[in-house]
Amino acid sequence: MRFVLRRAGFFLLTLWAAVTLNFFLPRMMPGNPAIAMMAKFHGRLTGQALVALETIFGVNTHESLLVQYVHYLGDIFTGNFGTSLFFFPSPVSQVVRSAIFWTLGLVGVATILAFLLGTGVGIVAAWRRGGLLDSIAPPVLVITSAIPYFWVGMIFIMVFGLKLHWLPWSGGADITLTPGWNGAYIGNVLQHAILPGMALLITTIGTWVLTMRNNMVTTLAEDYVRMARAKGLPSRRIMLDYAARNAILPNLTGFAMSLGFVVGGAILIEYVFNYPGVGYMLLQAVQNEDYPLMQALFLLITVAVLVAILLADIATAIFDPRTRTAR
Amino acid sequence: MATTTVTVQAGHSTAGQAGRRVWRAVRRNRKAATGGVLLLLFCLIALFPGVIAKDSPTAEIYPKNLGPSAAHLFGTTGLGQDMFAQAVWGTRQVLIIAIGAGLLATAIAAVVGVTAAYLGGTWDGVLNLLTDVLLVIPLFPLLIVISAYVQNSGTGVLIAVLAFTGWSYTARQLRSQALSLRNRDFLEAARVRGERPLYIIAVEILPTMISLLLAAFLTNALYAILFASSLQFVGLGDPNATSWGTMLYWAENNEALQAGYYLQAIIPGACIALLGTAFALLNYAFDEVGNPALRPVRKIRSKRVQSASS
Amino acid sequence: MSSPPVPEPVLEVSGLSVEYVLDRGSVRAVDDVSFTVGRGEFLGIVGESGCGKSTLLFAVAQLLAPPARVDGGSVRFKGTSLVGLTDKQLAATRWRDLSVVMQSAMNALNPVMSIGAQFKDVMQAHGVKRGDEIVARSAEVLRMVGIDPAHLRSYPHQLSGGMRQRAMIAMAMLFTPELVIMDEPTSALDVVAQRSLMVQIKELQETYGFAVIFVTHDMSLISHFSDRLMVMYAGQVSELGATKTIFDKPRHPYTQGLLEAFPSIHGPRVPLKGIPGNPPNLALIPNGCRFHPRCPQVMDRCREEAPGLIDVHGTLARCLLYDAGAARNSAAQPTGGRTDA
Question: Is pTM, for the whole model, over 0.80?
Answer without folding.
Answer: no
